Structures are given as C-alpha cells and as structure tokens.
C-alpha cells in the first residue's frame, strides 16, 4: 500500500506538470502567429532594409524568403533566352522567365510557415501568376509589407554605402521601378492587405512593427 507521502508526491507532480502544460498552451494560444502560414510580399526601394527584415522573418517566424534579385543573378541563361528573342523590355525583374523561376523555388521550400517574396510580383501579370500559384499551394492571400523611404533618404543611404553599381543614373532607375511596382500593388490588391512601414525608423522598431502585423496586434490605420 502506498504511503501518504508517496501519494502526496504524485499529486504534486501531477499538479506541477499540469500547470506547466496549461501555461504552454496559454502562451501558444496567445501567439496568433504560432500555427499560421503566411504569404508575404516585401516591397521597398533599394536601401530600405528589406534584406535585414527578411532575415528577421526567417529567424523569428521560420519564414523563408525568395529574393528576385538573387534569382536574376543566379539564372542569367534563363533570362537571356527571352531577352534575345526581344520579348523583354525594361528591367530583368519583369522577364517572363521570372515566373517559372519563382514557382520552381517556392515548390522546393518547406512551406510550413509560408514564404516571403522580395521583389515579386512587380507587374500585374506576375500578380496573376502568384495568385494562381498560391491557390495551387494552398497559401493564404498575401500580406503586403511596404518598407517605405523618401527618395532623398534612399539616395543618401546608397551614397554612404559606396557600391560600384550605386551610380546616380542606376539609383534613379531603381526608384522609378519601385514607384511603378508600388502603383501596381495598390491597384491590384485590396488596401486591407497593404501595410506601409516607415523604413527610416530603427531596424528593431521596423521588425517590431512587422511582428505585430503578423500577430494581428497592429490596428489598421
């Protein structure tokens, strides 16, 4: 027959582990992002900190990022095939090959937490392609996160980082492309899907705002 001390010890353990389980359950239920999948579109001018925030999404939420600029750099032959046929005017990000490259990359990823896209979609055709791809992969409607900076701040940031390709003409071209892409985003997606963040704030503050958006803790202005 068990002693009273043994019984009391067993009851104490049950209560202790039960309380811990309830605490963990409460913590998880309080974090609305815990069981969510995301489709995030990051948009912002060069120098706005998108790469830094993409790293934050990966570290904090486990969300991988596809950067179109990386696809352009890594797949010159695929883009050149269209360029030589005279199909692609404008920047390489609008090349028809990008759709296939994005689809191939997305389907190779672990989408347990979803995916973030940096620089895609950049046109209505690409937005249509993304919608079809998201439906196929059972991804939710996109959350558009615009990390915005005034043009003069962008120019100053790029001037101080002193990269060879940050020439005045190229900077102006990138800003032009950014504003064109943002105009398309605003016309294509409902305003409720678009969040604009001041990219001139400290990095941690921008990250905190993105976290609040994903946790449904940020009221829509």
Please give the share of residues in helix: 55-70%
CATH architecture classification name of the largest domain:
3-Layer(aba) Sandwich
Tally the helices: 9
> Strand sequence of the main sheet, in spatial order?
2-3-1-4-5
Radius of gyration: 23 Å
How would you characterize this protein structure?
This protein has 221 residues and is α/β, with parallel strands linked by helices. It has two domains: 1-30; 32-214, Rossmann fold, CATH 3.40.50.300. Helices cover 55% and strands 11% of the residues. It has helices at 4-30, 50-61, 68-74, 76-83, 97-107, 124-136, 151-161, 168-188, 203-214, and strands spanning 38-43, 65-67, 114-118, 143-148, 194-198. Strands 2-3-1-4-5 form a five-stranded parallel β-sheet, sandwiched between helices. It is globular. The chain starts with a helix and ends in a 7-residue tail after the last helix. Mean pLDDT is 83; it is low at 4-29 and 84-89.
């Amino acid at each position: 027959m068990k002693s009273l001390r043994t019984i009391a010890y067993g009851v104490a353990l049950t209560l202790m582990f039960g309380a811990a389980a309830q605490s963990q359950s409460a913590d998880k239920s309080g974090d609305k992002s815990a069981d969510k999948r995301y489709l995030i579109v990051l948009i912002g001018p060069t120098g706005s900190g998108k790469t830094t925030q993409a790293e934050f999404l990966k570290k904090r939420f486990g969300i991988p990022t596809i950067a179109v600029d990386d696809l352009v750099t890594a797949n010159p032959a695929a883009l050149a095939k269209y360029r030589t046929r005279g199909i692609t005017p404008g920047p390489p990000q609008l090349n028809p090959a990008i759709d296939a490259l994005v689809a191939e990359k997305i389907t190779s990823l672990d989408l347990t937490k979803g995916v973030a896209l940096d620089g895609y979609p950049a046109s209505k055709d690409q937005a249509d392609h993304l919608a079809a791809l998201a439906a196929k992969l059972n991804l939710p409607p996109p959350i558009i996160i615009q990390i915005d900076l005034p043009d003069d701040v962008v120019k100053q940031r790029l001037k101080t980082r002193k990269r060879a390709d940050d020439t005045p003409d190229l900077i102006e071209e990138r800003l032009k492309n950014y504003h064109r892409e943002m105009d398309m985003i605003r016309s294509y997606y409902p305003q409720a899907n678009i969040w604009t963040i001041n990219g001139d704030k400290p990095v941690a503050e921008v990250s905190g705002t993105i976290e609040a958006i994903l946790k449904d803790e940020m009221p829509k202005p």
